[in-house]
């Protein structure tokens, strides 16, 4: 019997790129947030051996290069299981879109495989296998709002924030993440030498300072959240505790407080000059009332966070009128994420 799972996407609420490490990865700081957009994955285990990937989408690789293939390769021996694993991918998310589509597919495959085999790996073993396949996989073993450090693979759950309406624009541009990192190195190297490009007028502080700065912003936000929680506990009503959010609705405040503390996605500095149409999509979202809009990961997806579902729906249709694919959806809390993975 095939096991069916939803494979939800993520966005990055801020992403700071640190120094290039000896292992070839960049030190990274980011906050991941799962969203309600998803692919659908079916997994079945039959007699025989081998791994087969099926998808009607020609852009989905059917060989070893597919993250689903690789995770099954690692998981089968760890689960001490044998059989032929057939994975069917119903692709709805963009490929190379910055929404973690392929990474989410692999984690969804692992969860479905465990269920199909009626076996479970210990949580730390799942995380190890996931991080071996890619930096963006482990976050999907946590869900909700997540801190990502190391090269993005070391993940910690942050306080589970209320769902917030958002728009995801998916321009038809595929961006290679390794290439975007290489472009960043060229820019950061250049700016250290005080060569300013059109998009980086300011000289960037050293990578290690920029990494600690992200930590300070995040600690300040978390401090504000817990203060507001204790005020709420005392008074019995919600209050953000962070000055920037005064006067706004309750559900939206914690997440918007975070993005308004000044976090940004470093990839914008290398991706926007190459694809100015993406900067324009961000502007359209801002003009349509987004409290915050940003590139997700290395793109090309751009998201906007909105105060109401109505405003998000209007912004998405405005983008579609400009021939940019866009949908209104919402962020997904950790609880919603785990409740909705299995049918
Ligand atoms: O881990 P993942 O397979 O997604 O990484 C793909 C490539 O992206 C890496 O081989 C590396 O070149 C680059 N990368 C990086 N720094 C990170 C994550 C990825 O340089 N933090």
User: What is the N-to-C succession of helices and strands?
Assistant: EEEHEHHEEEHHHHHEEHEH
Question: Regarding quaternary structure, how should these chains be classified?
Answer: single chain
The N- to C-terminal Cα distance equals: 14 Å
Basic shape? globular
Instruction: Give me the number of helical elements.
Output: 10
Helix content: 25-40%
Proportion of residues in extended strands: 15-25%
Rg measurement, Å: 20 Å
Q: Sheet bearing the most strands, described?
A: 6 strands, mixed
Structural class by sheet pairing and helices:
alpha+beta
Based on DSSP secondary structure assignment, what is the total number of beta strands? 10
